[in-house]
Amino acid sequence: MVEPLNIALAGLGTVGTGVVRLIETNAELIARRAGRPIRIAAVSARDRTKDRGFDLSRYTWEDDPSVLASREDVDVVVELVGGSDGPALALARKAIAGGKGLVTANKAMIAHHGLELAAAAEEAGVPLKFEAAVAGGIPVIKGLSEGAAANAIERVYGILNGTCNYILSTMEDTGRDFADVLQDAQRLGYAEADPTFDIEGIDAAHKLAILAAIAFGARLRFDAVETMGVSPVKAADIEQARALGYVIRLIGMAEIDRSNGVTGLFQRVRPHLVPFGHPLAHVDGATNAVVAEGNFMGRLLFQGAGAGDGPTASAVVADIIDIARGEKRAAFSMPAGELEAIEPAPTGHRLSRSYIRFTVHDRPGVLAEITAAMRDAGVSIESLIQKGSEEEGGEVIIAAVTHEGPESAVTEAMRILDGSDSLVAPPLVMQIIAD
Amino acid sequence: MVEPLNIALAGLGTVGTGVVRLIETNAELIARRAGRPIRIAAVSARDRTKDRGFDLSRYTWEDDPSVLASREDVDVVVELVGGSDGPALALARKAIAGGKGLVTANKAMIAHHGLELAAAAEEAGVPLKFEAAVAGGIPVIKGLSEGAAANAIERVYGILNGTCNYILSTMEDTGRDFADVLQDAQRLGYAEADPTFDIEGIDAAHKLAILAAIAFGARLRFDAVETMGVSPVKAADIEQARALGYVIRLIGMAEIDRSNGVTGLFQRVRPHLVPFGHPLAHVDGATNAVVAEGNFMGRLLFQGAGAGDGPTASAVVADIIDIARGEKRAAFSMPAGELEAIEPAPTGHRLSRSYIRFTVHDRPGVLAEITAAMRDAGVSIESLIQKGSEEEGGEVIIAAVTHEGPESAVTEAMRILDGSDSLVAPPLVMQIIAD
């Protein structure tokens, strides 16, 4: 009989419970595929008495998760505690220093401390794996760092937050407004009680920074992700976008920018307009999808469940199986010391088509003021819709789509209009994804 | 300096040339990711003088490809000769027996001899890899055997042949008929001069059999794939399907069937109707896409370029990088000896919704005859369209969609109508994919 791979689980929330359930349900199949059984040597969580739907007494319990990192009978620590620092980071460091492999679903911790942990893991000669940290059940880290390994990746982008995608696609289907749909999402469990990390784009930014590091062989720069969330998107924007042939999605996008003779790392999370003909336009509900473009493979798309206990557990256990099989790939596809320090790219010279929505007072001269500002800033307008107000002197929506041009011109037009008393609220600018 | 991984290339057609170009272009990046350089130690092809766009003199030439398998300075043989048997198979066997790793893009050889080669590779302790054999540049073999490794896979299906998808989606866009579009596809290089393997579904069946073996841990049964090609699909079918909310795609589908208390392997390649809301409905042109459904991960979709020198070379070199990294996963995700022998599943009891197109003489009583046959066979009709003929007594098209029911009932209805002189041609039955 071959030796099992012994794992210790820290954290028995939704994902941790899913991992136990998966390992119990698919044990025999996993042993055949991994070449050896996966054995849960010990577990730790905050509450020992909570009913999690499985018999906790089958597993050795530790009150203190950090003890898992020093148990003799543990090969791999699975960190599912969460949080970028605190107990999760302490456990991760201790596990690696103690010669254990580390598997985690913790995107915040990897986005902030991934480089340090990867360097420590290489030093210690242990695996560090975090497939579940990005896009839940979709093996996109494996896809980029192994499947696409032969390619220079030019761009990676996608729908990285299921909560935002659920909200936007529900707004689209129902015509309802953001706040209203968010409440529903919270009630249905698609959004947290405090939804800030999701709806402000921070969760997507964590994932994007991880993907960018792997795709471009660049040192992680979470601090340099330009981030905007979905709360400014109105039902009217979705309606206008649809009339123009687009849907609105929160897109994380990263590129290597060589356009100015300097290599820069471009990373942005923002609502974008996606043309109906693009595969991302058909990604609805809590689904995630990632597109990677390489110099030989062309465009590759990965799509699936971005969250939930089953899909996330599937990714966690895939990492464990890789370790059981003896796979030794570096955490970020190449050794941490070889990742290049690439400065954030300036964005002003980026050529984009943009959608700009103005909420204005319904009175003479407003349209002339806006179009003059666009002209003076050098923004060329491709189409413009003014939606009539129902009452004299009320608010109206003006939605403009620009021709392709430097983003700095749009910024300049917004600067000219800043503080204008024609505007009821600040304009919303969203870039348009090319087909 | 670390030792390079030395490879030998047999075959310098489109893909082989692409592999050389990729390794030359991305050499430095590949070395960083693989942890060591990839060195082309020797090459062999039919014609030494042909201009392939690179300097052949840089590489050691062998007239006889089988010599590559015994060169001391070769770690991995890359077989890109093609053909299920003959020189390709001889080279593969010799390379493995000689203790070399084998990488191949040869779907026909793997579909026919994959089990034998996998067993030999395990015996010899060398890697056997064939990512490029299925869906070109899409890392779907890796996705299934590693990314989805924690799951019991319930179903795997997709668009596996770019030629057929190009033809069907062009018919859809232009309203033109099959033969006409095929000619264009041949002129543009999307179809071979002899397109039989592609348009009759054999190429897709090769790929499906490989995917099924990996997904289900089953012994390869290419002989048991029920195969039908796209040539019977008419422009009128595409038009009717669209009116009903579907597109037509050649789908390869494999499932483990446990419905009758016996475990059976279901494998089918056929044109299907795909509802507009399904991600496969938006896969156009020569693109490939594969869906896998697992008991924890849910539905996963992989999409990308299914053919072409760049994407296929990307997959070949990804395999080479895996080997350079020391990855040791079994060729079919588990040892060949552990793959289960699963008998083909009978299909009569399968519950499907079907589209049935009849081409009939435009005369009284025909519709009554068809609907009576359906009733007598127990087929419940959900909708039926009769498209009026332009001239009295001409041919008309009747398109029926059935409610969900056993496929045997549809077969029985076809049997009742067989030989009826109301029918101008045999009816065409296509199953409908669920949303």
TrEMBL record, chains A, B:
Short name of one Pfam family: NAD_binding_3
CDD domains (alphabetical): ACT_HSDH-Hom (cd04881)
Hydrolase in keyword set: no
Active-site annotation: 207 (proton donor)
An MF annotation (GO) of this entry: homoserine dehydrogenase activity
Amino-acid positions noted as binding L-homoserine in the UniProt annotation, renumbered to this chain: 192
PROSITE patterns from the UniProt entry: ACT, HOMOSER_DHGENASE
Keywords: Amino-acid biosynthesis, Methionine biosynthesis, NADP, Oxidoreductase, Threonine biosynthesis
Domain ACT residues, every copy: 355-431
Enzyme Commission identifier(s): 1.1.1.3
Example GO BP: threonine biosynthetic process
Record has 4Fe-4S as a keyword: no
Family from the record: Belongs to the homoserine dehydrogenase family.
Protein known as: Homoserine dehydrogenase
Source organism (scientific name): Novosphingobium endophyticum
